[in-house]
Design goal:
CATH architecture of one domain: Alpha-Beta Complex
GO molecular function, one term: inorganic diphosphate phosphatase activity
Family: Belongs to the PPase family.
Distance between the termini: 40 Å
Pfam families: Pyrophosphatase, TPR_1
Helix content: 40-55%
Number of strands: 18
CATH class of one domain: Alpha Beta
Protein name: Inorganic pyrophosphatase
Number of helices: 16
CATH topology of one domain: Inorganic Pyrophosphatase
Structural class: alpha+beta
CATH superfamily of one domain: Inorganic pyrophosphatase
Shape: globular
Keywords: Cytoplasm, Hydrolase, Magnesium, Metal-binding, TPR repeat
Radius of gyration: 28 Å
Length: 587
């Protein structure tokens, strides 16, 4: 029996298939219908009733919880998985007075915030995800629950220079469902809730050392009509993605029910059939850091330091090591770890390192604790001199301290090289990052090599944008570092946009002037032969894609008036002025 789910306004009969333990990297929540796994992104319908007044919301994160679960775009059939940070499950910290998420958090299926589309309201591109939804009703949901909800309004979160809409909704079964019908009603029946929502979205990434987010429209939540238009816009962008008009790139688009999709498959497809049977396991223990609060005033103060964090980190590190090294801190690596955790406001991790320092110290525990407390209170960590000169110079190091750091950074590099040789690139990156954390800023060429090595790992992982960025970091430190220049050229060539190809060709031309080895020179000659034609072809293709998207956008707007772009014809001025005239054609 063929699947027709995507065109039916119901989520009835959809169940979940859970694999693995919550709070682990192996945790997945799939959806299934009639015993076959379906896509959370593409097969669950957006609309929950024929009138299109209710919507299906996929719950990713229940209220009061911290695990950052999300519909995974890169995995076939798009199960809910926990986002990773440095290879570990990601959790949102508790920022006083909030405990985890203060709403049921999830997404609308069959929507997509197109990263190629720049919103006219925010002047920023989409975040490449299904549109986010926050459900403000009184019940606490479960992971994977599909709620039927009513749209109330929307916030325009500007998250790290991307548009990240947050649709505000209420469950159809909530006691306040009949009373709250638009955004203005929320303050009437839930006073202070929108203000708290605004605050949390602004500050929730501060513990990661990132900047405070901004909210569009000066923080104002827009009304139901505006929100509905945005949701329908993202639904339109999803349609262009799923029907093949917009390139899917890394997004998995396999589905069982979208009739006009070239990615539609049958239930017996090998990808569908290969999903393991349900194997739900007990949740893993939560990290102990989730027991603590973060305070926004402290986080903002810490972030103001991080504008120049490498120099600040090493200068403060030196001053504290001098104060504590003799005789309390014999383990330099331990203390560097402490300084790094303090700098990132990872207080609970910092306290754990302090405990380890005290345990390994030759000084009596009470004396060690007193000395550490005194030093931390008087260090720059307590009152940063933001006006002062924080430039770090290697002459401030005692010779043995400098040599210790150089040696330790070299040991991390050696471990990274070993992992690289074993094709364990993620582990290699971690070791090179450790080396960067230790290596003095007065050795820019050494630091450039570590960035270059990280870039080499990313190239092996086919993460070409990350590789390009790491090479740029390396070349900023050492403009003569030809390996980094070659890797950046190769990365941009793989990124394969007209801009990236042009930048790649420029780097190859620089290499041709500087390089002496035969391999690099052959690569330069090949690039000079191949890339000009590829740049020309790619530019033409991108122009066609852009015009196609503009036409689709125009049709989506004109369609409301019974018109299309075919009703308008442009004719170039026959007198050679270069101008065009537009004529209306009644079709």
């Amino acid at each position: 029996m063929p699947f027709v789910l995507a065109t039916n306004n119901t989520a009835d009969g959809i169940t979940i298939r859970t694999i693995g333990a919550p709070n682990t990297v192996d945790y997945k929540v799939y959806y299934e219908k009639d015993g076959h796994v379906i896509s959370a992104f593409h097969d669950i319908p957006l609309f929950a009733n024929d009138e299109k007044t209710l919507y299906n919301m996929v719950v990713e994160i229940p209220r009061w919880t911290n695990a950052k679960n999300e519909i995974n775009k890169e995995t076939p059939l798009n199960p809910i998985k926990q986002d990773l940070q440095d290879g570990n499950p990601r959790f949102i910290p508790n920022i006083f007075p909030f405990k985890g998420y203060i709403w049921n958090y999830g997404a609308f299926p069959q929507t997509w915030e197109d990263p190629n589309f720049i919103s006219p309201y925010t002047d920023k591109k989409g975040d490449n995800d299904p549109i986010d939804v926050i459900e403000i009703g009184s019940s606490v949901a479960t992971v994977g629950q599909i709620k039927q909800v009513k749209i109330l309004g929307i916030l325009g979160l500007l998250d790290q220079d991307e548009t990240d809409w947050k649709v505000i909704v209420i469950d159809a079964n909530d006691p306040l469902f009949e009373k709250i019908n638009d955004i203005g009603d929320v303050e009437t029946y839930m006073p202070g809730y929108l203000e708290s929502t605004n605050t949390l979205f602004k500050v929730y990434k501060l513990p990661q050392g990132k900047k405070e987010n901004q909210i569009a429209f000066d923080g104002e939540a827009k009304n139901k009509a505006f929100a509905t238009d945005i949701v329908l816009e993202t639904h339109h962008h999803w349609k262009l993605l799923i029907n093949g008009t917009t390139p899917r790139k890394d997004i998995q688009t396999i589905n069982l029910s979208v009739s006009d999709s070239p990615y539609k498959c049958e239930p017996h497809n090998v990808t569908v059939a290969s999903v393991p049977e349900s194997n739900a396991l007990p949740a893993a223990d939560l990290p102990k850091e989730l027991d603590m609060w973060y305070y926004t005033s402290t986080l903002k103060n810490t972030h103001s330091i991080t504008e120049n964090k490498d120099k600040d980190t090493q200068e403060e590190y030196v001053s504290i090591v001098r104060a504590l090294k003799d005789p309390i801190v014999e383990n330099l690596q331990l203390f560097c770890s402490l300084r790094f955790e303090l700098f990132l406001s990872n207080i609970s991790k910092s306290m754990a390192v302090i405990e380890e320092i005290i345990e390994e110290s030759v000084t009596p525990k009470a004396v060690a604790e007193e000395k550490i407390e005194e030093t931390l209170e008087t260090s720059k960590l307590a009152e940063p001199d933001l006006e002062g000169d924080v430039f770090f110079d290697s002459e401030e190091y005692q010779a043995d301290e400098l040599q210790s750091l150089i040696k330790e950074a070299g040991e991390y590099k050696a471990k990274g090289n070993a992992y690289f040789g074993q094709a364990e690139y993620t582990s290699a990156i971690a070791e090179y990052e450790n080396a960067l954390m230790i290596c003095p800023l007065s050795l820019p060429k050494d630091r450039a090599i570590y960035f270059g090595n990280i870039a080499a790992c990313h190239l092996k992982q086919d993460k070409y944008k990350e590789a390009r960025d790491m090479c740029t970091q390396a070349l900023t430190l050492d403009p003569k570092y030809l390996k980094a220049l070659l890797r950046r050229a190769q990365a941009n060539e793989k990124i394969d946009t007209s801009t990236a190809l042009t930048e790649s060709l420029e780097d190859y031309k620089k290499l041709k002037r500087e390089a002496k080895d035969s391999y690099t020179l052959r690569e330069c000659q090949r690039a000079e032969r191949e890339l000009p034609g590829r740049i020309k072809d790619k530019t033409e293709k991108e122009k066609e894609e852009m015009l196609g998207k503009l036409k689709d956008l125009g049709n989506s707007i004109l369609g409301k008036f019974g018109l299309s772009t075919d009703n308008f014809q442009f004719q170039q001025d026959p007198n050679g002025s270069g101008g065009y005239s537009m004529n209306f054609v009644n079709k």
